[in-house]
Amino acid sequence: MTGEVAVLGAGMHPWGKWGRSFVEYGTAAARAALADAGLEWRDVGSVVGAGTVRGGYPGYVAGATFAKALGWQGARVTSVYAACASGAQAVNTARAQILSGLADVVLVVGADAAPKGFFRPAGGDRPDDPDWLRFRVLGATNPTYFGLYARRRMAVHGDTLEDFAQVKVKNSALGALNPNARYRTRVTADEVAASAVVADPLRLLDICATSDGGAALVLSSMEFARRHATNQPVRIRAVSTVTPHYPNTVLDLPDIATDSAAALEPAADPFRASIARAAYEEAGVGPEDLSLAEVYDLSTALELQWYEDLGLCGQGEGAKLLREGATALGGRIPVNASGGLASFGEAVPAQAIAQVCELTWQLREEAAERQVAGARVGITANQGLFGHGSAVIAVR
Amino acid sequence: MVDGWFTGDGDGFRLLGTRCAACTSLFFPREDAHCRNPGCPGGHLEEVPLSRQGLVWSYTDSRYRPPSPYVTDPELPWEPYTLIAVELEPERIVVLGQAAEGITVADLAVGMEVEVVPGVLHEDTETIWTTWHWRPTGVTA
Ligand SMILES: [Zn+2]
Asked: Which 3 state secondary structure label does DSSP give A172?
């Protein structure tokens, strides 16, 4: 146990394709989180921005960019980039500052304005960059990897296209209840099956879109929260940011090959499972204690993989858990009550923060129609390029 | 771009990796700077050819044109290609590559044997960019 921090405020800018600057989304989310916390921007002692590679220099120096837009007030500033794990690393940075006494109140912000179509590597000829190489040498987009994982699950575990489609059916039904989601219509299995194949066996409606969006949190020390807030706040009890163990034997973005296991046996847990395990160990809870989970459903098939890696069921039993209805709202362990990336799309530096926003609202019982009854413990999980793991556990 | 990743012609075509003389860890794409085994003090990295044949770990295809830096001619209609992740058993490594021309996902199954063959990534007026392709064993182009 490393100690807890309080979530005093959560805020979002709705996801979509709005065509505006990421700065606008981030500051809107920040103002919403501050209002939710009942604090002024000048009460914040530190701001941590999750970086985006888009938007040029302002994207790379996200912390200061948001601080300037909100009005320079002399706060400590940090900018972090860890691809899809950027938001979780921003939360972790804020937590470390609070627990070490460097700051009492920290604002965490992530926002992105995503381009249309596939994500692509940063510009220039960079053959020493694995992300550049996989595009240049193989044309391997992100959906390529999702397709490989999906086909592998079908061959090894007997998952079907119908199982994958049912993940979308579930998440779209939840997204329809979420005013911050980009897609707010329910999708049927037939509609998934009728959508175009992107990367066999996955179709357009199996794969998450790219989106604009922003999310923010106001975190504080427990002592500040006791002085400031009347109610017991939601608390963050663990933030996992672990890397894989060598040899990493599951083919992973953006790599062209796995590590070889010829000289050294792989660790018992594959990378994704080790991300969750680190969070459970830090929080002193296990999968049996969870009320809900928010996971990176970059594809429908990948959500099933997360069920197993979070320990919600045994290896290979993800589709069975879904079919039983355990991960739907009202089930034993609802997954992606927010609607997930299926309903939001990817706004890379914002999404891991948005997952914690959802946990916050759920644990406060403020999630309206998508409320998980009696929610007390929630986990988020995602993964960033180049071995960035992340998971957050929050409790009521 | 991929200097030293493969060598040879015809049946002699091989992917090239490197192996640490201290701990025998094998790397593809080749690692020439320092052994990445965290428990290894670091040894000389020597070039080694990889197995010619392997088993399909998984496969997919690309029904939409990938963005640059993948090179395609936007004037031509998009022709999907297939990608195969192949497990080389002696090396205990999975290597992703494009399938040989004409191979579609309908031709493949997880666990099927494939072999590495030379291929062309693209060509312009000055250069032919060569690469490696995976092709089901026994199929000839
Ligand atoms: Zn070594």
From this structure: helix
CA of A387 to the centre of ligand 1 (A): 20
CA A187 – CA A327 distance, rounded (Å): 17
In three-state secondary structure terms, A194 is helix
Closest CA to A352 of A244, A249, A241: A241
Indicate the average pLDDT of chain B: 95
- This model of the complex carries an ipTM of 0.97
Asked if B57 and A251 come within 8 Å (Cβ–Cβ), the reply is yes
Q: Give the H or E element holding residue A392.
A: strand A388-395
Question: Cβ of B95 and A256 within 8 Å?
Answer: yes
Cis peptide before A254 (omega within 30 of 0): yes
The amino acid occupying position B6 is F
State how far the Cα of A360 lies from the Cα of A354, in Å rounded to an integer. 10
Contacts of A152 in chain B (CB under 8 A): 57-58, 110
Is beta strand B45-49 parallel, antiparallel or unpaired with respect to B14-20? antiparallel
pTM over 0.80? The answer is yes
CA-CA distance, A183 to A133, in Å (whole number)?
33
> What pLDDT score was predicted for residue A1?
46
State chain A's mean pLDDT as an integer. Answer: 96
Q: What is the mean pLDDT of residues A109-133?
A: 89
Instruction: For residue B133, report the phi and psi dihedrals to the nearest 5 degrees.
Output: -125, 155
